Amino acid sequence: MVDIPEHLLLRSAEARAKALGISVEQALAEMKGESDPTVISKEPEVKTIDETPAPAAETPAPAAETPAPAAETPAPAAETPAPAAETPAPAAETPAPAVDAPDEVDFAPEVKVTQRLLTVVKAKPIQKSVSEPVDKVNTWPHLMLPEFVALMAMTAFLIFLSAILQAPLLEEANPNVTPNPAKAPWYFLGLQELLSYWDPQIAGVMIPLVLGLVLWMAFPYIDRNPETHPSKRKFAIMFYTFFLAGAGVLTIIGVLFRGPGWNWTYPWIDGIWFDDLLDWIHFE
Amino acid sequence: MQKLSLRDRIKEARVSASDSFRGGKLMSSIFRPGSPFRKGYVDSPRNRSYVVMNNVLYHLHPVKVKRHGVRLSYTLCLGGLSFFLFIVLTITGIWLMFYFRPTELAYVDIQTLQTSIAFGSLVRNMHRWGAHLMVLVVFLHMSRVFYHGAYKAPREFNWVIGVILLLLTLLLSFTGYLLPWDQLAIWAVTVGGNMAGYTPVIGAQAKFGLFAGLEATTATLLRFYVLHVLFLPFIIVIFMAVHFWRVRKDGGISGPL
Fold first, then answer.
1. Which of B67, B122, B191 has its CB closest to that of A184?
2. Is the distance from CB of B232 to CB of B176 less than 8 angstroms?
3. Claim to verify: residue A154 and residue A101 sit in the same structural domain
4. Where in chain B is the domain with CATH 1.20.810.10?
5. Does any CB of chain B come closer than 8 Å to the CB of residue A69?
6. d(Cα B134, Cα B78) in Å, to the nearest integer?
7. In a domain, A124, yes or no
């Protein structure tokens, strides 16, 4: 005999026990061949649980009268159901016990079993849907058209900017002539400004590396608050805004308020030392 | 049958020629089903899906997006514009490479570009202002993401990649800064490179590696050039691919506030 996993056997036994109205242990024993199979003796149970097909249901009385003989003679029982099923009308009209009995016997367990109930699956979906339906629109054209407009606007803006602002080109590089002041690109000017306050190891390396990179990258792992609305994450908003404002102020000081020797200058009095916009500002 | 006017007959001939061309084998082989360039394109939900699905360039997008994501005020298109500026910078950058040698001739090449080459000045300006703009737009994109809390689960790792992209953008801009080889370039890079020299323990080595020597020379120029036109774009494209892919995999655009 094929090895059937224990849990399947148990489930099958439970189903069988329920169908036949016997104990699970007994059903299990029967299925393992340790005890004689139970014969269906009570008709109503069969009818309600096994969902007996129409012809049998239409003629319940004869079936109930002769269950045992049919069970003892499996061969004819297996042969006869077909004609009965094919011609339900005559069977219903003339309830001849001899003809209709096998219909019932079909469900008796010890008749040469060709199919059996392994388990009962309850009528509910196997998969649980977890996602809520979302209000969506087609990417084409609802997203791609605005995107296209944005690209065109950006292109137009860039060409316009490039037409009116000449990119700076000073005299040729000369390592022997240091301009005063020597300024970094504008996005590093905040750092350069910090360098004038603190030790270079702190301002030039530790702050950009630790604060700027490690802390910035790790931010989602530090901020575990799942809320996204600003009113529910006031600290995070304040934190970011504080550093944004700090970097902005330092950069503006570095760009506009620092002159020769990195001394404080006022752009409206002393002029601007920011060669990136040299040809644009024409000021000094 | 009513005799058609000459104008109608020309129109008819034009329409039938257009139809037979757009419905022909050549066009059907180039454009996949659902393309507006094929004959018989109609505006249907099916074709709207095909427009995105059957085009390798548009395939970056999902077929459908959340309705609130289409609102301009939600993203301000900042991520898309960062990518677009990168493309503009790639195109203008390749154009500039035709006229630029990263040697002691670099400065002369830039002068020649500005004075003797058609649109040379315009393209150089576009490349330079576009680069500044990209730094700004990437930074604004990051701020937008932060203020919307769009870095929260499941998008934590995409934020990390985004910070790396910001860093690479800054490095690209910084390496490009040296290339004109004027006083502005060499001293800005000297100041920036000296900052790297303050790194604990390996400061001297970091500075030497960056400058290809003890100070900014033409060897530095070549080094920055290779980093600027080849190495960093290569790296940033890989990170961008992961970034865009994760946007899709993490459930598209983040939810509204």
1. B191
2. no
3. no
4. 78-249
5. no
6. 10
7. no
Residues A198 and A256 in one domain: yes
Gap between the Cα atoms of B224 and B230, Å rounded: 10
Identify the residue among B144, B191, B215, B220 best suited for mutation to test binding to A, counting A beta carbons within 10 A and taking the highest.
B191
Q: Are residues A144 and A202 in the same domain?
A: no
| Distance of alpha carbon B192 from alpha carbon B189, whole angstroms | 5
Interface probe for A, chosen from B138, B152, B190 (most Cβ of A below 10 Å), is B152
What burial class does residue B230 get, using C-beta atoms within 10 Å of its C-beta: 0-12 exposed, 13-18 middle, 19+ buried?
Answer: exposed
What residue type is assigned to position A138 of the chain?
N
Report CB contact under 8 Å: B147, A237. Answer: yes
What is the residue-level pLDDT of chain B in tens, covering all 257 positions? Answer: 567 889 999 999 988 888 888 888 888 888 888 888 888 788 888 888 888 888 888 888 888 888 888 888 888 899 999 999 999 999 999 999 999 999 999 999 999 999 999 999 999 999 999 999 999 999 999 999 999 999 998 899 999 999 999 999 999 999 999 999 999 999 999 988 888 888 888 888 989 999 999 889 999 999 999 999 999 999 999 999 999 999 999 988 887 77
Domain span at residue A38? 6-105
Looking at the structure of chain A, the number of domains it has is: 3
Q: Which of A143, A184, A220 sits opposite B151 (nearest CB)?
A: A220
> How far apart, in whole angstroms, are the C-alpha atoms of residue A262 and residue A191?
13
Domain membership flag for residue A90: yes
Query: What is the CATH number that goes with domain B78-249?
Result: 1.20.810.10
Contact B70 A147 (CB under 8 A): no
Which residues of chain B lie closer than 8 angstroms to A153, CB-CB?
Answer: none
A201 touches chain B (CB under 8 A): yes
ipTM of the complex: 0.90
Angle, CA of B225, B228 and B231, to the nearest 5° = 105
